[in-house]
Write a structure and sequence with these properties.
The complex is a heterodimer of chains A (112) and B (114).
Chain A (H helix, E strand, L loop, with lengths): L3 E4 L2 E5 L4 E7 L6 E6 L5 E7 L5 E4 L2 E6 L4 E6 L8 E8 L7 E3 L3 E6 L1
Parallel strand pairs in A: 2-11
Antiparallel strand pairs in A: 1-3, 3-8, 4-5, 4-9, 6-7, 7-8, 9-10, 9-11
Chain B lengths: L4 E3 L2 E4 L5 E6 L6 E7 L5 E8 L14 E5 L5 E5 L8 E8 L8 E2 L3 E5 L1
Parallel strand pairs in B: 2-10
Antiparallel strand pairs in B: 1-3, 3-7, 4-5, 4-8, 6-7, 8-9, 8-10
The chains are: A mainly beta (112), B mainly beta (114).
């Protein structure tokens, strides 16, 4: 059974600081997603990572994937208040479907 | 439509009543997914539909839950005899095909069972 663990669950950080969110998963998968969710809103897709060593960057966010370690990271550089949200990683289940198994989420609060 | 549309956006129901939640996928998307998000938690997969193939119902938590989809259009998720533990946000997503990269999520229906 595919399980996805995310940590930390809550992250309070100051503007300008760097931090990393970790996502571990238990079995092989062909895809890993990072999503952002603002309070009361739906999910916004940030990145999809497909292969070992994949790295994608958008603004202050950078995601990477190590399929051998079954680990993905979401790195935040020089955080700003606008990045405050909950971030989820999600891993594709069996077969090439979007039957995704989600982590519990990381609530990021960036303090001005 | 421009995005995945769900209705109602909020639903409060009494314990024991049946509810129907509706999802309008993006036009042309053949795959449709339902997820449940309990307060403060990640999303749990419930069911997906792909065209006219048999749906994958493996995530439905009990036989009180059912879903239908006609062709590649609207889907309804029905919860019978609602219980308080059914309170959650129910999210629908669609993608071009079953394995397409990136599923687009609707705004969700917040269900509260009192």
């Amino acid at each position: 059974e595919l399980k996805v663990e995310q940590n930390p669950l809550f992250l309070s950080m100051q503007e300008g600081k760097n931090y990393t969110i970790y996502c571990n998963y238990s079995t092989t998968s062909d895809r890993l997603y990072w999503y952002r969710q603002d309070p009361g809103k739906s999910l916004e897709s940030l990145f999809v990572l497909l292969s070992n060593g994949a790295v994608k960057q958008e603004g202050r966010l950078m995601a990477s994937l190590d399929t051998k370690a079954r680990l993905s990271t979401l790195h935040i550089t020089a955080a700003v208040h606008d990045l405050s949200a909950t971030y989820f990683c999600a891993v594709g289940g069996e077969g090439a479907t979007n039957k995704l198994i989600f982590g519990t989420g990381t609530l990021l609060a960036v303090q001005p | 439509g421009a995005g995945v549309s769900q209705s109602p956006s909020n639903k409060v129901t009494e314990k024991g009543k049946d509810v129907e939640l509706r999802c309008d996928p993006i036009s042309g998307h053949t795959a449709l997914y339902w997820y449940r998000q309990r307060l403060g938690q990640g999303l749990e997969f419930l069911i997906y539909f792909q065209g006219n193939s048999a749906p994958d119902k493996s995530g439905l938590p009990s036989d009180r839950f059912s879903a239908e989809r006609t062709g590649e259009s609207v889907s309804t998720l029905t919860i019978q005899r609602t219980q308080q533990e059914d309170s959650a946000v129910y999210l629908c997503a669609s993608s071009l095909r079953l394995g397409s990269l990136g599923a687009f999520f609707g705004q969700g229906t917040r269900l509260t069972v009192v």
